[in-house]
Amino acid sequence: xxxxxxxxxxxxxxxxxxxxxxxxxxxxxxxxxxxxxxxxxxxxxxxxxxxxxxxxxxxxxxxxxxxxxxxxxxxxxxxxxxxxxxxxxxxxxxxxxxxxxxxxxxxxxxxxxxxxxxxxxxxxxxxxxxxxxxxxxxxxxxxxxxxxxxxxxxxxxxxxxxxxxxxxxxxxxxxxxxxxxxxxxxxxxxxxxxxxxxxxxxxxxxxxxxxxxxxxxxxxxxxxxxxxxxxxxxxxxxxxxxxxxxxxxxxxxxxxxxxxxxxxxxxxxxxxxxxxxxxxxxxxxxxxxxxxxxxxxxxxxxx
Length: 303
Description:
By secondary structure, this protein is α/β, with parallel strands linked by helices. The chain is built from 13 helices and nine strands. The chain is globular, with a radius of gyration of 20 Å. It starts with 9 loop residues before the first strand and ends with a helix. The model has no long low-confidence stretch (mean pLDDT 95).
């Protein structure tokens, strides 16, 4: 069975800020994103690239995966600086075509070979932030086996591309988000869902709001988080982790389904709920994720 990835929480921060880097690994994130893109001013791009190789082991000290977000228009320079042992993922912003992803993949493949990294180990995060990217979603999702999750379709860049306000009391990104999630589901990927709960504050540090989003995502079967402020880490970890009650219920479902299989039956009721192979599959996925979360927690405590 493939390793169940745990990516409930993450922080993205400018790599050229040493204070952020030294603190980030202590936050309890599942992943950390070293940013070379929007948070780094143009005159510091070259300097920021020079920091990546030594920053990767620092960011990894707390057990988090280390990712790098590169610039859309500086692919070769940024990848040359970012692809080193210890890197788990490259986030490619403003992805609009499958050809772009294949180009990123080809460079990563060459650098993996040159730098002693297992072939195919480094993932690509295809960040969809424009209408054109949404329209090409299915082709992008299929462009590289390095893409393991898919979704998104909200945020500042998308609102700017569409010419709409970002913080409003209605779901202005619903169509695009749905297209991306369906594209990911067709490819049997983990879904990076952006659950909508009204928020007009624009705050990136509201722990209560973050927990509501994470909890709603978990109840729909989505477990990937991420954010900009340390305040969101704990509520994301808590909100995305299956509860003891959910684990207990999933075990009951699996036990009943094993009985159904042994008896040659397709379904049965459990307290008014139909249990069949689809419910069993959902329960199995929840139990695997809960176990992976528990292992990650134990691993952190042992550091």
